[in-house]
From TrEMBL:
<keyword id="KW-0472">Membrane</keyword>
<dbReference type="InterPro" id="IPR017871">
    <property type="entry name" value="ABC_transporter-like_CS"/>
</dbReference>
<keyword id="KW-1133">Transmembrane helix</keyword>
<dbReference type="InterPro" id="IPR027417">
    <property type="entry name" value="P-loop_NTPase"/>
</dbReference>
<dbReference type="InterPro" id="IPR011527">
    <property type="entry name" value="ABC1_TM_dom"/>
</dbReference>
<keyword id="KW-0547">Nucleotide-binding</keyword>
<dbReference type="InterPro" id="IPR003439">
    <property type="entry name" value="ABC_transporter-like_ATP-bd"/>
</dbReference>
<feature type="transmembrane region" description="Helical">
    <location>
        <begin position="91"/>
        <end position="112"/>
    </location>
</feature>
<dbReference type="GO" id="GO:0005524">
    <property type="term" value="F:ATP binding"/>
</dbReference>
<keyword id="KW-0067">ATP-binding</keyword>
<feature type="domain" description="ABC transmembrane type-1">
    <location>
        <begin position="22"/>
        <end position="342"/>
    </location>
</feature>
<feature type="domain" description="ABC transporter">
    <location>
        <begin position="376"/>
        <end position="609"/>
    </location>
</feature>
<dbReference type="Pfam" id="PF00664">
    <property type="entry name" value="ABC_membrane"/>
</dbReference>
<dbReference type="Pfam" id="PF00005">
    <property type="entry name" value="ABC_tran"/>
</dbReference>
<dbReference type="InterPro" id="IPR039421">
    <property type="entry name" value="Type_1_exporter"/>
</dbReference>
<keyword id="KW-0812">Transmembrane</keyword>
<feature type="transmembrane region" description="Helical">
    <location>
        <begin position="21"/>
        <end position="39"/>
    </location>
</feature>
């Protein structure tokens, strides 16, 4: 229930919707009622049950309030009068005319109320999606493992659809159908009290059984949704790694992985569907059983007592016609209860994401970083990914305006060190200080404002060249963007593209060469003009010309900045002010190129290996 109400919060403000919706539903119900209410007089007219002479006197206001006899008395009085004046055909025509008009109005009100409810559904779901997107972008980087990515995608798509089809749908069902039920039942009571008491049995019994089935369904639907997340994970991985998959001829391998998940999904889905599909025939049969009982009981009321019968034949037929209509809202309510159960599973999965606390966030006393004047210092920093300790006791100092290079064997922890500076992760031990104060004392946004990051893999977005450089600042000036592209050696190739700076670069920059992608990433960093630069050198080999262009771009970028460079080719960092050799998560040597060569340790060995 808590989940349901939390999801309903997204439908707020709901009152401006509910009041008109309520009124429209009542109007719709009353007008549809008129159709059926006309059945008895229609049949009586056709089968000559109306007295030829109009009854004397007034309407029976005193004896009957709005009861069956009153309505009947009123109609019959009127009909008798009209028959007397203009004949039976006129009454028939009036009954038909009223039926058509009532149906027209009923449908107009229904249409308007449907429009309203669809609008509410759409905005509610849009709000849920927006909240999810906000939350996802606020989570810390460590959260986005491949497993989580597929899972998040599934939650933001499948689960949101499931909530749309159930929870938001239920809001309108739970308002509309009870009204219909109440109005219809009130009318049924005026037709026959005894019979109506009977019908009351149907709703709780069949409703109870259906909700029992729905509860069982809930368990299976959780499984199905999990498998759908795994499917998306495999798909995402495959799309991202298509080049490798093809190059290694591993199509069959990934296909078998996908087939396995796919089959698991089918199994789980079928289990779920089998139960779900059982609900509808079950309620149908239950409904018909009760209609049968009512037919029998009502029929006996008509047949047994002859003249004294509490029901006339035409009333009984009206009753049955009406009763089949009552089943619809009753069925809709029990279906909605079942759907809500299913939607709640999806809703819980959505709320789980919304409830995630980003593990890296500002503290209440965090202040904006106003300037960077001296140095960034690592003081006995350690770090673990979960249980896996990857950094131990790292200490070094990155002076303002200087370049520190991290080198060392793969997997040593260089990228992890770099990730700690913009607080993608926080150290598990020790401290990182900026101008002598812990990074955590500053707001994350202000800290990152001072930093520019160029990653190994150039991350580009499906947008124009301009927007990729002026990332997040669409109103940036064209001159500044061009200036940045020039510094990054990217201007010339951009100008050769079909629409220059307005060229769409394709998903993840697929239309560009590796070197071009890198230079665009560099141009983005130049444009941001950060004081502190974190540069993870690309490992992918470029041809000599391209390499030179990229290297020059990097040299331009680093000019007058404080830089932490993760170097894979030692030739590029010989002039660094400080070279730190990282091995197995520890600092094993540090110094300048010359001093480290002279020392003849790990750095020298690496150097020899590379040359
Ligand atoms: N998200 C992660 N979860 C768990 N372990 C991780 C994660 N990222 C990296 N590691 C592990 O942490 C260790 C250090 O990785 P890191 O990427 O920092 O090394 P690196 O020196 O930058 O390597 P390379 O030169 O190959 O880029 C490795 O053993 C790696 O397997």
């Amino acid at each position: 229930m808590k989940t349901y109400f939390r999801l309903l919060e997204f439908a707020k403000p709901i009152t401006p919707f509910l009041v008109p919706y309520f009124i429209l539903t009542i109007l719709y119900t009353v007008f549809s009622l008129v159709n059926f209410a006309m059945l008895t007089p229609l049949m009586d007219v056709l089968f000559n049950e109306i007295p030829e002479q109009a009854p004397e006197g007034q309407l029976y206001w005193d004896d009957f309030t709005l009861s069956k006899e009153f309505i009947k008395g009123y109609f019959y009085q009127e009909f008798a009068r009209i028959i007397e004046e203009s004949g039976k055909m006129t009454v028939l025509a009036i009954v038909c005319g009223v039926t058509i008009t009532a149906s027209l109005f009923a449908n107009i009100f229904r249409y308007v109320s449907r429009r309203m409810s669809e609008g509410l559904k759409a905005t509610t779901v849009a709000r849920i999606r927006a909240a999810l997107f906000d939350k996802i972008t606020s989570l810390h980087i460590g959260y986005f493992t491949n497993q989580h990515k597929g899972d998040l995608m599934s939650r933001a798509t499948n689960d949101v659809f499931a909530v749309e089809a159930s929870i938001t749908q239920s809001i309108t069902t739970f308002v509309k159908e009870p009204i219909t039920l109440i109005v219809f039942f009130a009318y049924l009571f005026t037709l026959s009290f005894e019979l109506t008491i009977f019908t009351f049995l149907i709703i709780p019994i069949s409703g109870g059984v259906i909700s029992y089935i729905a509860k069982k369904l809930k368990k299976h639907s959780k499984n199905a949704q999990q498998f759908s997340a795994s499917l998306l994970s495999v798909l995402d991985e495959t799309l991202g790694g298509m080049r490798v998959i093809k190059a290694f001829g591993s199509e069959r391998y990934v296909k078998s992985k996908f087939d396995f998940e796919n089959q698991e999904y089918v199994k789980s889905f079928r289990k779920m569907a089998n139960r779900k599909e059982l609900a509808s025939p079950y309620s149908e049969v239950m409904g018909m059983v009760f209609v049968g009982i009512i037919l029998f009981y009502g029929g006996s009321l008509v047949l047994d007592k002859g003249e004294e019968a509490p029901l006339t034949a035409s009333e009984f037929i009206t009753y049955i016609a009406f009763f089949t209509q009552v089943l619809n809202p009753a069925k809709a309510i029990s279906n909605a209860i079942g759907n809500v159960q299913r939607g709640l599973v999806a809703g819980e999965r959505i709320l789980e994401v919304l409830d995630l606390e980003p593990s890296i966030q500002d503290q209440s006393k965090s202040l904006p970083l106003k300037s960077f004047d001296e140095a960034i210092t690592f003081d006995k920093v350690s770090f673990a990914y979960g249980d896996k300790q990857v950094l131990h006791d790292i200490s070094f100092r990155l002076e303002k305006g200087k370049t520190v290079a991290l080198v060392g064997p793969s997997g040593g922890g260089k990228s992890t060190i770099a990730d700690l500076i913009p607080r993608f992760y926080d150290p598990s031990g020790g401290q990182i200080l900026i101008d002598g104060k812990d990074l955590k004392e500053y707001t994350i946004d202000s800290l990152r404002d001072y930093m520019g990051i160029v990653t190994q893999e150039s991350i580009l977005f499906h947008d124009t060249v301009f927007n990729n450089i002026a990332f997040g600042q669409p109103d940036a000036s064209r001159e500044e963007v061009i200036q940045a592209a020039k510094i990054a050696n990217a201007h010339n190739f951009i100008m050769n593209m079909e629409d220059g700076y307005d060229t769409m670069i394709g998903e993840r920059g697929a239309k560009l060469s590796g070197g071009q992608r890198q230079r665009l990433s560099i141009a983005r960093a130049v444009f941001k003009n950060p004081s502190i630069l974190i540069l993870d050198e690309a490992t992918s080999a470029l041809d000599t010309v391209s390499e030179k262009l990229v290297q020059d771009a990097i040299t331009n970028l680093m000019k007058d900045r404080t830089a932490l460079v993760i170097a894979h080719r030692l030739s590029t960092i010989q002039n660094a002010d400080l070279i730190i050799v990282i091995k197995e998560g520890r600092v094993v040597e540090q110094g300048t190129h010359d001093s480290l060569i002279a020392k003849g340790g790990v750095y020298k060995t690496l150097q020899e290996l590379q040359s």
